[in-house]
Every structure is written in C-alpha cells, then in structure tokens.
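Sequence in, structure out. Go.
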Amino acid sequence: MSDILFPGNDFSTYEKQDKVLVGVSGGVDSAVCVHILREQGFAVTGAVIRFSPAHDKAVEEARKAAASLGIPLEVIEAGEEFERQVVQPFCQAYCAGRTPNPCVLCNPTVKFKLLAARADELGIPFIATGHYARVEQTAAGQYHIAQPASVARDQSYMLYRLGQDILARLCLPLGEFEKEDIRQIARDLGLPCADSPDSMEICFIPDGDYAAFIRGRGLEDKPGRFIAPDGKDLGPHKGVMHYTLGQRKGLGLALGKPAFVKAIRENGDVELGWAGDEFFSGMTLRDVCCAAGGELPAGDYLVKIRSAAKPVPCHYDGNGLVRFEEPARAPAPGQSAVFYGGGLVLGGGFIDQILD
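Output:
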C-alpha cells in the first residue's frame, strides 16, 4: 500500500515503527484503520473507551477485535466525564425542545481528549480513528478537518470542534476510501466484522428511545399544546422532547393536509406550519469556533446544518448571524452549523434561533 494516506499531517516523514494509538470499537472501520496504519509502518496500540455501562458490550467487541488483529488494547474509563460533558447536556437540550448531537459534544470534550491523554501517558505521538474524514494543513500552518473521498460517508461535520493540538497528531486513514473498499479489505483479511451492520443509534441509547431514556433519569418532559398555522389551539401534545423542527411524522394530528413542526416555544407549545413552508432565511449561532483559532471572520461560506445535509452557500456576519443564499429547510436549534471552504472545515457553532 503506497504512502498516500496523510495529505495534511506529513506522516511520510515519520520514523518507521512510530507509535499510534487507535480508537477501536469492534467494528469494521476501526479494524481496517489498524490494518492500514500497520501497513504504513506504524506500531499500533488499540484503545476502547467505556463511556457508560451501556458500552460494556462494545468493550468486549473491541477486546475480540484487538485479539484478532494481534494488538494490545487499552481500556479508558470515561463514565464521569461522559456523563457531565455529553449525557447531561443532551438530556437538558431535549427537555428544552432542542435537538442536540451528542457526537459533536463528545468528540472534543471526551473521546479525542481522552485518547490524546492516554497516548501521552504511553509515550505515543499519534492518535487515529476510523472516521471518514481527512486532516490537511494550510500554507499558513494550521490544521483542518477536510472532507473525505466518500461524499456519502462524510463525517467531517462531527469533528469540527477539534482543536489544533488534536489535529496536529491525528491520523484519519479512512478518508481516502469508500465504505465498500473498507469492507472488501476486511473480507480479504478474513475479519469477522467485515459485513457487520453500521451503528445508527446514539451509543448510550442503543434502542433509540430518547424519551424513555430521559424519563428514566427522573427528568420531566415539558408539556404544551399544538398551535395550528392559523393560530388555533389544537390541544395538548406528548411533551416537547418528542418533537424537532421540520418533523412531519408522528404528530398524531389529522389536519387535512401535511404539517410540520415550525417552532417549539419556550412555554412548551409546538407551533405547526404547512408542509412546503419549512424553509428559513437564516439563523443565529452560539459558541462559534474557528478551526484555525481565534474568531471566525465574517464572510461567505458553505454551511452544513445537519450531518447528512449538502453544504449550502451563506453569509456569516462574524457575530453569530447566518443568512442563507437561498432559504434552507428546517435548521434545528441544538444542532450544529459547520462552515466549509475549499473542502476544509473552517469553523462552526450551535444553532440557537431560526429566522423567517
């Protein structure tokens, strides 16, 4: 395998048998990530993070994967940090009628932070994961997450809040591959995970029932009422944690034509709009970060308002206000807006308010 994998971090100059700590999950992506790095000459140690008791099965799968790959495995305990940085904010956001993305919260504050800390303890200079993204370095010397070869698998959105200290030592070898390429490599290696299904749910809520998870923690849902597009009170709803902006299905209403969730008010009321009207001219952001450090400058960018969305043109005013070049469908407060330019992640922030 040729040395084509690391266009940003200049890993073509590493000393043979330099060490790398790879996040291992037991799935096909991290397993092939290990293989690729070993082919490149790295000495690989695996690491699995136990985020909560719900991850015990994942830890066991990681142990099996490490054994089959013939690498040592570190188990990193993250329970308290994960609870504080990810689970609590996630639950609070849902109870407030927002739509958080826990992976965006976890990556900079828990996952990559703990991987880097363990790597430092072990004297390992590099860290790696099986994310579909790349790391590139600009002429000015800053590192950026970059979009991968696989448009369909692009995970750059999830990594936008990683800092320069992490990016400078991060290897993302899967950024050069399509998913089927990775599966084929795994088949060729005889790995049992080659055709394992992709995980689609939030890792700490494996059954996907967010409301039950939050109620099980003793948190109360916020009650409220459905408000029709004409302002008519349609009666009580199930609680704000059951709804998100842009939602059409599961409303349980017969209005004669399709409707969607247009807004979730602070008092708990869910304001509806008619399907086709769920496009908005702009949004405000909070906690905006700049990949290069400092403040994200005003300017024209491409922006993603959800992980699987296509980047769309916008103008950012430098102070949290975003205006779309053309109205965008249902930006959801709590989700992230990630800015791109030239295929690089330039910054982003959390969606706060939606503008008609």
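Check: The two ends are 51 Å apart (CA to CA). The helical segments are 28-39, 56-69, 79-95, 102-122, 164-167, 179-189, 210-216.
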